[in-house]
């Protein structure tokens, strides 16, 4: 194949949702993913989703992933796995490597970038020791590879990722010694933090890690209390015996391909940093290149799937598969769902941040 109607880079929740919408409209769709199995983060998520019935509330992420894969198969969507995209250009030419040995190039009428995000690191003394890892890496080990990363674990970060992965580590048989949070308040939803606290896990707010202790691997960790100016308070150091330190300090959008293609960017701290400017159809400033999911700003899997739907609908419409009225109606329905997801204190902040991105694209 050297030509495709819609090429989607990234086979996670956003990418699969975009592919399904594009294929349902009648477009020939190709999904490219660097992993051995599509589905992305969904197959790490054994917890049930929140929201409404329309947003898969009460369904576990792994089951949602299975549903998306089944629909993609039914629609005969072509998927290239173990395939790395190395670059794209403004003419929508894509090149990369398949199976780590065969190069390829392909020209797309439309491209949807659904490349996701990467975990943020936190630097402290000993942070490169074996046994220090991202929370997402630990989640991959237990939920995908069925491997326990350690027996006694400290989690850095009390957001939803930190508390959810902590609970899943306990389910897998590990002891979570504590959850450390630099802020004076916990960051995750109350339902998650309460469940972990009831399980006996200690939370250390206004604390951070000062050093990891060990010769060839993590053997212990030293934490320290922070004052109101986020400075360590001398004499408050505490040493905890652990063999693993997990870091849940947020995510950064994986935007390299959008940079290479020449997209305009905007810096929005609440959305993870620099993100591609895009409009309400998810199209970037490079005509015919769309974004969806965490690459367009860090949110949640439910939001990623809705953004994928938006990108798929509008990419297909731009190829003539929908008349303008149909495009507007379908886009409006998805936007209503997105606005519903962005209700509440956390969602409201993200809605405001997303509005800044949309404004930057229009400007």
Automatic annotation (TrEMBL):
Protein name (Swiss-Prot/TrEMBL): Thioredoxin reductase
Example GO molecular function: oxidoreductase activity
Cross-referenced PANTHER family: ANAEROBIC GLYCEROL-3-PHOSPHATE DEHYDROGENASE SUBUNIT B
Domain of life: Bacteria
Domain FAD/NAD(P)-binding: 5-308
Pfam families in the record: Pyr_redox_2 (PF07992)
Protein's organism: Marinisporobacter balticus
InterPro entries: FAD/NAD-bd_sf, FAD/NAD-binding_dom, Metab_Enz_Cyan_OpOx_G3PDH
Keywords, ordered alphabetically: Oxidoreductase
């Amino acid at each position: 194949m050297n030509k495709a109607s819609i090429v989607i880079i990234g086979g996670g929740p956003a990418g699969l949702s975009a592919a399904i919408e594009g294929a349902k409209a009648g477009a020939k769709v190709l999904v490219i993913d660097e992993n051995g199995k599509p589905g992305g983060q969904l197959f790490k998520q054994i917890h049930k989703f929140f929201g409404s019935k329309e947003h898969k509330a009460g369904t576990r992420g792994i089951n949602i992933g299975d549903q998306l894969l089944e629909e993609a198969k039914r629609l005969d969507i072509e998927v290239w796995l173990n395939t790395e995209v190395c670059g794209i250009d403004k003419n929508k030419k894509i090149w990369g490597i398949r199976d780590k040995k065969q190069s390829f190039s392909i020209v797309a009428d439309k491209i949807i970038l659904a490349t996701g995000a990467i975990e943020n690191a936190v630097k402290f003394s000993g942070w490169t020791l074996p046994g220090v890892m991202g929370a997402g890496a630990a989640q991959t080990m237990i939920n995908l590879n069925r491997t326990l990363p350690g027996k006694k674990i400290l989690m850095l970060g009390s957001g939803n990722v930190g508390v959810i992965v902590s609970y899943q580590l306990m389910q897998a048989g590990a002891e979570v010694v504590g959850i450390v949070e630099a802020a004076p308040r916990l960051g995750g939803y109350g339902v998650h933090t309460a469940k972990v606290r009831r399980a006996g896990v200690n939370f250390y707010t206004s604390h951070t890690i000062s050093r990891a202790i060990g010769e060839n691997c993590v053997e212990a960790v030293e934490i320290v209390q922070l004052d109101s100016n986020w400075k360590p308070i001398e004499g408050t150091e505490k040493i905890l015996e652990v063999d693993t330190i997990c870091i849940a300090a947020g995510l950064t959008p994986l935007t390299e391909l959008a940079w290479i293609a020449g997209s305009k960017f905007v810096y929005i701290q609440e959305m993870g940093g620099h993100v591609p400017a895009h409009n309400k159809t998810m199209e970037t400033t490079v005509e015919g290149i769309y974004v969806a999911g965490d690459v367009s700003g860090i949110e949640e899997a439910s939001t990623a799937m809705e953004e994928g739907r938006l990108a798929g609908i509008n990419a297909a419409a731009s190829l003539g598969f929908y008349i303008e009225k149909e495009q507007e109606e379908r886009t409006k329905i998805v936007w209503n769902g997105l606005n519903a997801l962005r209700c509440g204190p956390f969602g409201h902040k993200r809605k405001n941040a997303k509005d800044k991105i949309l404004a930057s694209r229009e400007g």
